[in-house]
Amino acid sequence: MNSTQNERINQITSSTLIVGVDIAKFNHVARAQDYRGVEFGKPITFGNTREGFELFVGWYQKIATAQGFQDVIVGMEPTGHYWLNLAHYLRENHVKYGIVNPLHVKKSKELDDNSPSKNDMKDAKVIAQLVKDGRYAIPHLPQGIYAELREAMKIRDHLTTDLCVVQARVHNWLDRYFPEFLTVFKDWECKSAIQMLSLYLLPHELACVSDETLLKHLREAAKRGLGLGRIQMLKAAASRSVGI
Protein backbone atom coordinates (compact mmCIF):
# COMPACT_ATOMS: atom_id res chain seq x y z
CA MET A 1 0.00 0.00 0.00
CA ASN A 2 1.58 3.30 -1.07
CA SER A 3 1.62 6.58 0.83
CA THR A 4 -0.93 8.20 -1.49
CA GLN A 5 -3.45 5.46 -0.76
CA ASN A 6 -2.76 5.81 2.98
CA GLU A 7 -3.43 9.54 2.75
CA ARG A 8 -6.75 8.93 1.03
CA ILE A 9 -7.75 6.32 3.60
CA ASN A 10 -6.93 8.75 6.41
CA GLN A 11 -9.22 11.34 4.82
CA ILE A 12 -12.16 8.98 5.29
CA THR A 13 -13.24 8.95 8.92
CA SER A 14 -16.24 7.84 10.94
CA SER A 15 -17.88 11.17 10.07
CA THR A 16 -17.55 10.61 6.29
CA LEU A 17 -20.47 9.42 4.20
CA ILE A 18 -19.20 7.44 1.21
CA VAL A 19 -21.38 7.45 -1.90
CA GLY A 20 -20.75 5.11 -4.82
CA VAL A 21 -22.29 5.97 -8.19
CA ASP A 22 -22.61 3.62 -11.14
CA ILE A 23 -22.58 5.85 -14.23
CA ALA A 24 -24.70 5.22 -17.32
CA LYS A 25 -25.80 7.26 -20.32
CA PHE A 26 -29.24 8.26 -19.08
CA ASN A 27 -29.66 7.09 -15.48
CA HIS A 28 -27.15 6.62 -12.66
CA VAL A 29 -27.44 4.45 -9.56
CA ALA A 30 -26.05 5.48 -6.15
CA ARG A 31 -25.59 3.78 -2.77
CA ALA A 32 -24.31 5.25 0.49
CA GLN A 33 -22.28 3.71 3.32
CA ASP A 34 -19.84 4.55 6.10
CA TYR A 35 -16.16 3.67 6.49
CA ARG A 36 -17.06 0.21 7.87
CA GLY A 37 -19.21 -0.67 4.87
CA VAL A 38 -22.53 -0.25 6.70
CA GLU A 39 -25.10 0.91 4.16
CA PHE A 40 -27.59 3.72 4.79
CA GLY A 41 -30.84 4.47 3.02
CA LYS A 42 -32.16 2.84 -0.11
CA PRO A 43 -30.26 2.96 -3.40
CA ILE A 44 -31.35 5.79 -5.68
CA THR A 45 -31.64 6.01 -9.44
CA PHE A 46 -31.35 9.52 -10.87
CA GLY A 47 -31.20 10.98 -14.35
CA ASN A 48 -28.28 12.61 -16.10
CA THR A 49 -30.01 16.00 -15.82
CA ARG A 50 -29.87 18.98 -13.46
CA GLU A 51 -33.08 17.79 -11.82
CA GLY A 52 -31.55 14.34 -11.41
CA PHE A 53 -28.36 15.75 -9.89
CA GLU A 54 -30.37 17.88 -7.46
CA LEU A 55 -32.36 14.80 -6.47
CA PHE A 56 -29.11 12.92 -5.89
CA VAL A 57 -27.60 15.67 -3.73
CA GLY A 58 -30.80 15.96 -1.71
CA TRP A 59 -30.80 12.19 -1.18
CA TYR A 60 -27.32 11.92 0.29
CA GLN A 61 -27.67 15.17 2.26
CA LYS A 62 -30.78 13.76 3.92
CA ILE A 63 -28.85 10.60 4.87
CA ALA A 64 -25.88 12.62 6.12
CA THR A 65 -28.10 14.79 8.31
CA ALA A 66 -30.06 11.85 9.70
CA GLN A 67 -26.93 9.81 10.51
CA GLY A 68 -24.76 12.70 11.71
CA PHE A 69 -22.13 12.64 8.95
CA GLN A 70 -20.13 15.84 8.61
CA ASP A 71 -18.66 15.36 5.14
CA VAL A 72 -19.33 13.41 1.96
CA ILE A 73 -17.20 11.89 -0.77
CA VAL A 74 -18.70 10.66 -4.03
CA GLY A 75 -16.95 7.92 -5.99
CA MET A 76 -17.73 6.97 -9.57
CA GLU A 77 -16.41 4.82 -12.39
CA PRO A 78 -15.32 6.95 -15.39
CA THR A 79 -17.59 5.25 -17.92
CA GLY A 80 -16.91 6.77 -21.33
CA HIS A 81 -17.64 10.49 -21.15
CA TYR A 82 -20.92 10.13 -19.27
CA TRP A 83 -19.35 10.81 -15.86
CA LEU A 84 -18.11 14.27 -16.82
CA ASN A 85 -21.47 16.02 -16.40
CA LEU A 86 -21.87 14.78 -12.83
CA ALA A 87 -18.23 15.49 -12.02
CA HIS A 88 -18.52 19.11 -13.19
CA TYR A 89 -21.75 19.54 -11.25
CA LEU A 90 -20.17 18.21 -8.04
CA ARG A 91 -17.14 20.45 -8.47
CA GLU A 92 -19.31 23.51 -9.01
CA ASN A 93 -21.11 22.67 -5.76
CA HIS A 94 -17.85 22.03 -3.87
CA VAL A 95 -18.54 18.33 -3.29
CA LYS A 96 -15.51 16.08 -2.96
CA TYR A 97 -15.43 13.31 -5.55
CA GLY A 98 -13.07 10.72 -7.01
CA ILE A 99 -12.93 8.12 -9.75
CA VAL A 100 -12.11 4.43 -9.44
CA ASN A 101 -10.33 2.16 -11.89
CA PRO A 102 -12.82 0.09 -13.97
CA LEU A 103 -10.49 -2.92 -13.71
CA HIS A 104 -10.61 -2.67 -9.92
CA VAL A 105 -14.40 -2.64 -10.07
CA LYS A 106 -14.44 -5.80 -12.17
CA LYS A 107 -11.96 -7.63 -9.93
CA SER A 108 -13.75 -6.58 -6.76
CA LYS A 109 -17.06 -7.90 -8.08
CA GLU A 110 -15.44 -11.27 -8.68
CA LEU A 111 -14.21 -11.33 -5.07
CA ASP A 112 -17.63 -10.44 -3.69
CA ASP A 113 -19.80 -13.02 -5.47
CA ASN A 114 -17.49 -14.81 -7.91
CA SER A 115 -19.20 -13.05 -10.81
CA PRO A 116 -17.93 -10.12 -12.91
CA SER A 117 -21.36 -9.62 -14.51
CA LYS A 118 -22.70 -6.08 -14.93
CA ASN A 119 -25.22 -4.98 -12.29
CA ASP A 120 -25.86 -1.31 -11.53
CA MET A 121 -26.80 -1.84 -7.88
CA LYS A 122 -23.84 -4.11 -7.24
CA ASP A 123 -21.43 -1.82 -9.07
CA ALA A 124 -22.44 1.20 -6.98
CA LYS A 125 -21.68 -0.76 -3.80
CA VAL A 126 -18.33 -1.97 -5.13
CA ILE A 127 -17.36 1.59 -6.09
CA ALA A 128 -18.16 2.83 -2.58
CA GLN A 129 -16.03 0.03 -1.11
CA LEU A 130 -13.08 0.97 -3.33
CA VAL A 131 -13.34 4.57 -2.18
CA LYS A 132 -13.41 3.36 1.43
CA ASP A 133 -10.14 1.52 0.82
CA GLY A 134 -8.53 4.60 -0.72
CA ARG A 135 -8.48 3.08 -4.20
CA TYR A 136 -9.58 6.17 -6.05
CA ALA A 137 -8.03 9.13 -7.82
CA ILE A 138 -8.93 12.80 -7.92
CA PRO A 139 -9.38 13.72 -11.60
CA HIS A 140 -8.11 16.99 -12.98
CA LEU A 141 -10.83 18.79 -14.90
CA PRO A 142 -9.36 21.83 -16.65
CA GLN A 143 -11.40 25.01 -16.77
CA GLY A 144 -11.64 28.02 -19.05
CA ILE A 145 -9.08 28.26 -21.83
CA TYR A 146 -7.32 25.09 -20.64
CA ALA A 147 -10.51 23.08 -21.10
CA GLU A 148 -10.95 24.61 -24.55
CA LEU A 149 -7.36 23.73 -25.51
CA ARG A 150 -7.82 20.12 -24.39
CA GLU A 151 -11.04 19.84 -26.38
CA ALA A 152 -9.39 21.44 -29.42
CA MET A 153 -6.57 18.88 -29.25
CA LYS A 154 -9.09 16.03 -29.14
CA ILE A 155 -10.96 17.43 -32.13
CA ARG A 156 -7.70 17.88 -34.04
CA ASP A 157 -6.70 14.28 -33.32
CA HIS A 158 -10.10 13.03 -34.53
CA LEU A 159 -9.91 15.12 -37.70
CA THR A 160 -6.36 13.93 -38.40
CA THR A 161 -7.46 10.31 -37.99
CA ASP A 162 -10.49 10.86 -40.24
CA LEU A 163 -8.30 12.52 -42.88
CA CYS A 164 -5.90 9.57 -42.90
CA VAL A 165 -8.83 7.17 -43.32
CA VAL A 166 -10.20 9.16 -46.27
CA GLN A 167 -6.76 9.41 -47.91
CA ALA A 168 -6.28 5.64 -47.59
CA ARG A 169 -9.69 5.01 -49.15
CA VAL A 170 -8.98 7.26 -52.13
CA HIS A 171 -5.62 5.55 -52.69
CA ASN A 172 -7.39 2.20 -52.54
CA TRP A 173 -10.02 3.28 -55.06
CA LEU A 174 -7.44 4.68 -57.47
CA ASP A 175 -5.35 1.50 -57.25
CA ARG A 176 -8.43 -0.59 -57.99
CA TYR A 177 -10.26 1.40 -60.63
CA PHE A 178 -7.79 3.79 -62.29
CA PRO A 179 -4.17 3.01 -61.33
CA GLU A 180 -2.90 5.06 -64.29
CA PHE A 181 -4.44 8.25 -62.90
CA LEU A 182 -1.32 9.02 -60.85
CA THR A 183 0.86 8.84 -63.97
CA VAL A 184 -0.96 11.95 -65.22
CA PHE A 185 -1.54 13.72 -61.91
CA LYS A 186 1.35 13.10 -59.52
CA ASP A 187 -0.67 14.27 -56.53
CA TRP A 188 -4.35 13.35 -56.41
CA GLU A 189 -4.89 15.98 -53.69
CA CYS A 190 -4.06 18.93 -55.96
CA LYS A 191 -6.97 21.07 -57.18
CA SER A 192 -6.89 19.86 -60.76
CA ALA A 193 -6.79 16.17 -59.80
CA ILE A 194 -9.64 16.54 -57.33
CA GLN A 195 -11.61 18.44 -59.97
CA MET A 196 -11.28 15.52 -62.38
CA LEU A 197 -12.11 12.98 -59.68
CA SER A 198 -15.25 14.97 -58.88
CA LEU A 199 -16.69 13.77 -62.21
CA TYR A 200 -17.02 10.32 -60.60
CA LEU A 201 -16.24 8.57 -63.89
CA LEU A 202 -14.63 5.19 -64.41
CA PRO A 203 -11.79 5.07 -66.98
CA HIS A 204 -13.94 3.69 -69.82
CA GLU A 205 -16.52 6.42 -69.17
CA LEU A 206 -13.88 9.15 -68.98
CA ALA A 207 -12.40 8.10 -72.32
CA CYS A 208 -15.75 8.80 -74.03
CA VAL A 209 -16.06 12.40 -72.82
CA SER A 210 -14.99 15.10 -75.28
CA ASP A 211 -11.72 16.98 -74.75
CA GLU A 212 -13.57 20.30 -74.65
CA THR A 213 -15.96 19.15 -71.92
CA LEU A 214 -13.14 17.85 -69.75
CA LEU A 215 -11.03 20.97 -70.30
CA LYS A 216 -13.95 23.23 -69.37
CA HIS A 217 -14.54 21.23 -66.21
CA LEU A 218 -10.83 21.30 -65.33
CA ARG A 219 -10.56 25.07 -65.84
CA GLU A 220 -13.24 25.62 -63.18
CA ALA A 221 -10.61 24.71 -60.57
CA ALA A 222 -7.29 25.32 -62.33
CA LYS A 223 -7.27 28.48 -64.44
CA ARG A 224 -3.67 28.20 -65.60
CA GLY A 225 -0.93 25.63 -66.11
CA LEU A 226 -3.08 22.82 -67.44
CA GLY A 227 -4.21 22.56 -71.01
CA LEU A 228 -5.50 20.24 -73.66
CA GLY A 229 -2.31 18.17 -73.55
CA ARG A 230 -3.00 17.02 -69.98
CA ILE A 231 -6.58 16.13 -70.91
CA GLN A 232 -5.40 14.04 -73.84
CA MET A 233 -2.84 12.27 -71.64
CA LEU A 234 -5.58 11.46 -69.11
CA LYS A 235 -7.91 10.11 -71.80
CA ALA A 236 -5.12 8.02 -73.30
CA ALA A 237 -4.36 6.55 -69.88
CA ALA A 238 -8.06 5.90 -69.33
CA SER A 239 -8.42 4.08 -72.64
CA ARG A 240 -5.53 1.74 -71.70
CA SER A 241 -6.46 1.36 -68.03
CA VAL A 242 -6.27 -2.03 -66.37
CA GLY A 243 -8.59 -0.89 -63.59
CA ILE A 244 -11.31 -3.27 -62.54
Q: What topology emerges from the helices and strands here?
A:
Blueprint (H helix, E strand, L loop, with lengths): L2 H9 L4 E7 L4 E7 L5 E9 L2 H18 L3 E6 L6 H10 L3 E4 L2 H12 L6 H13 L11 H34 L3 H4 L6 H7 L5 H4 L4 H9 L8 H12 L5
Parallel strand pairs: 1-4, 4-5
Antiparallel strand pairs: 1-2, 2-3
Helix pairs in contact: 4-5, 10-11
Descriptive notes:
It comes from Paenibacillus mucilaginosus 3016. This is Transposase IS110-like N-terminal domain-containing protein. There is one protein chain. This protein has eleven helices and five strands. Helix 4 packs across helix 5 and helix 10 (211-219) crosses helix 11 (228-239). A five-stranded mixed beta sheet has the order 3-2-1-4-5. With 244 residues, the protein is α/β, with parallel strands linked by helices. It folds into two domains: 3-140, Nucleotidyltransferase, domain 5, CATH 3.30.420.140; 146-239. The chain is 54% helix and 14% strand.
Helix-strand category: alpha/beta
Q: How far is the first residue's CA from the last residue's CA?
A: 64 Å
Low-confidence stretches: none
Per DSSP, the total helix count is 11
Count of discrete structural domains: 2
CATH topology title of the largest domain = Nucleotidyltransferase, domain 5
| Main β-sheet, spatial strand arrangement | 3-2-1-4-5
Largest pleated sheet: 5 strands, mixed
Number of strands: 5
Tell me what portion of residues adopts beta-strand conformation.
5-15%
- In CATH, the architecture of the largest domain is 2-Layer Sandwich
- Tell me, briefly, the overall form: rod-shaped
- Considering the protein shown, what is the CATH homologous superfamily of the largest domain? YqgF/RNase H-like domain
Helix content: 40-55%
Q: What's the overall average pLDDT, rounded?
A: 88
H and E string: HEEEHEHEHHHHHHHH
What Rg is obtained from the alpha carbons, in whole angstroms? 30 Å
The CATH class assignment of the largest domain is Alpha Beta
